[in-house]
Every structure is written in structure tokens, then in C-alpha cells.
Amino acid sequence: MPVSTRAGKGPRGGSGGQASGGQASPAGPPVDGSRATPVTPSLLRSWPLPSAGEDKYSRGAVMVIGGARTTPGAAMLAGTAALRAGAGRLTLAVAESVAMHLAVSLPEAGVTGLPETTAGSVLGSGLEPILPELGSADAILIGPGLDDIDLTEKLLSALLELDSDGVTGRGSVTGDATIILDAYALGCLPRVEDSLDPWRGRLILTPNPQEAGILLGKEIDQLESAVAAIAARYQAVVSCQGFVARPSAEASDGEASGGPDRWEITTGYGGLGTSGSGDVLAGAIAGLRARGTSDAQAACWGSHLHAAAADRLASRLGPLGFLARELADELPALMLELAT
After folding, report:
1. Rounded Cα gap, residues 109 and 169, in angstroms
2. pTM (2 decimals)?
3. CB count, 10 Å around CB of 215?
4. Considering only CA atoms, which of 22, 146, 61 is closest in space to residue 95?
5. Environment class of residue 98 by beta-carbon count within 10 Å: exposed (0-12), middle (13-18) or buried (19+)?
6. What's the CA gap between 123 and 83, in Å, rounded?
7. Helix, strand, or coil (residue 33)
8. Rounded Cα gap, residues 337 and 340, in angstroms
9. Measured between alpha carbons, how far is 211 from 238 in angstroms, rounded to an integer?
């Protein structure tokens, strides 16, 4: 079975949501020697995505915060994937020196410039321009293209402080949006763990195995159990190289506590290990979540679609050499097939 890696935080290699209204996720037979339920096309068809609705407002809004001067493409990849996954509206919040370029390159998005250092790294302050968009977003993805871990920590701390006056799990600034963390936003998460209460229960984390080790503060021996441990520690849904887990201590994420709390992606190709692949995965998950899925459904569907897109490209172009931006282009057709 082919295995992918992150540049590419991708799933593992076979083929391959909560229905709206809080329906529990379907169960399936666990993988041998594993507690995880295989994510197959039949499982996903029994866990359908929300309907498309009548207009862009019914499919939700995504905000992506990232895009330093040297890495604006990461935010663009994530935003493109969110739209390809069906999100209705997209805002990119990026370093001000690249905001105009991204606005032209991705005209479907609203783009806001954020204060930056002389080197082009996004500062952790000056967030006032995006506060109205934060309050109306359904999914907020933080991390793609951020390039300074200390400044990223300041950014997360500033957002958590703004949210701290709200009810736990429903911050006053970010509303009840799901927060998706990727890249440096994952790397600094242990540093802000003591302040994380406003986001617990509405987090999705997309680490690679190295980042999983950082989140747990130790080397990873068994990935499936590590992913489950991260989910429990941070009260988050976690997607990491083919394993997805959600907290299982109580009913959460709009789904029954008796349902599965671990899943394993059963498709995916090694070519996912390419620059920008992880940004596409995080963006796809954000787009699906904005449409009204549960956090766990968004992670399972997004991880499967990301891996299945790699299979498609590998069969057409070869096992290596396809580009991350090409993964996003495969998503609409794959979703259509799984809806039939």
C-alpha cells in the first residue's frame, strides 16, 4: 500500500460526514489490529455532505490567515482548495506586501493585508482589519504560509485573548467558527495550550508526524494512538497522514458519543509528498466545514478527497511530479462521484 508524507501530509494508500442536522457518523468494521474505521466510498456515501443550497451564503465562509511575503502561495493553495470543496465565500488575510498580488491571482477571494516585518513575516498584532470577517466566518484556517513561529505564537495569543471573554467554545470574536490550525500554527500550539479554552471543542488540527511529535512533546512510535492522544489533549479533531481522530470522552462535534472516534483513510499515493500538498488538505477541510459538516466529517471527507485526488493524478500523470495545485482541481468531480 503506497504511503504519502507531508510536504505532503497526506493519507496512506485502496480506493475510496455527518449529514446535516447532527446525525451521527456511520460505523464500519475496524482495520485489523486497529481501532480505526476505514474511510471508504461506501462509508462516505452513507455520510453525505450538506446540500449545495441556493447561493454562496448558504455554503459558508472561510478565512485563511497566512501568506508571508516569501510564501504567499501557501495561502492561495489553501483558499483555492476551500473553494473547490464548495465553500461559498473566501477571505485571505496575508502580509500586506503580497495582498494585491493574491487579489489579482485569485479574484474569487476577498484579500486583506496584515502588518508585516521588514522581512515580510506577518505580525501578531494589527488584526483590526479582519475582525469583522472573523466574526462572520464559519471556518478559520490559520497557518498556511506563516514563516516565523514566534510571531505565529503572538498571532494565536492575540486571537485567543480577544476570544477569552466569550463562553468557552464560543469566542466573542471568532463566534462559533471552527478553527483549523496548520504548519507553524501547529508548531506553537503547545506554547499557548494554557490559553486554549475558547477554542477547545471546535479545533481541527492537520499535523504531519513530526508536528504530531511536537504536539505531544515526544517521539511518535505508533501513529494511530498518537493521533487519538492529540485529539484528547487538545479537544480537537485531528487528521495526520491517513488517520483521523476526534475526542471520545463525551458527545462532541454534533455527533453521538457511541459512534467511531478514529478513522483510517484507505487511499492515497506517495506523490502527495510534494510542496503545498498540506495546504490543499487544510483548505479542503476548511471548505467542507464551512458548508455545514461536523468537524469530524470535514476531516474524514477532506482527507479522503485529498488522497483520492492524488490517485487520479498518479494514474494520469505518473506517481511523482504532479503539483499540489492540481489536487484541488480534482475535488469537485470526486465529490460528485461520491454523491451518486
Report:
1. 28
2. 0.88
3. 26
4. 146
5. buried
6. 26
7. coil
8. 5
9. 12
Other CB atoms within 10 Å distance of the CB of residue 57: 10
What kind and span of H or E run contains 285? helix 277-290
pLDDT, tens digit, 9 for 90 and up, residues 64-99: 999 999 999 999 999 999 999 999 999 999 999 999
Interatomic CA distance for residues 202 and 207, integer angstroms? 16
Query: CA–CA separation, 252 vs 24, rounded Å?
Result: 10
The count of other CB atoms within 10 Å of the CB of residue 15 is 11
Residue 249's contacts (CB-CB under 8 Å, 6 or more residues apart) are 232
Q: Which three cell numbers stand for residue 60?
A: 459558508
Name residues whose C-beta falls within 8 Å of residue 104's C-beta, 6 or more positions apart in sequence. none
Q: Which three cell numbers mark 240?
A: 495526520
Strands 243-245 and 262-265: antiparallel
Question: How far apart are alpha carbons 281 and 8 in whole angstroms?
Answer: 9
Sort 209 into a burial class: Cβ within 10 Å, 0-12 / 13-18 / 19+: middle
Element (H, E) at 93: strand 89-95
Listing DSSP states for 118-131 in one string gives TT-PBPSS--GGGH
Strand 203-205 with 178-181, pairing: parallel
Q: Which tens digit of pLDDT belongs to each residue from 290-301? A: 999 999 999 999
Instruction: Collapse the DSSP code of 338 into the 3-class scheme (helix H, G, I; strand E, B; otherwise coil) and give the result.
Output: helix
Residues forming beta bridges with residue 37, ordered by sequence position: 263
Cell of 203: 479545533
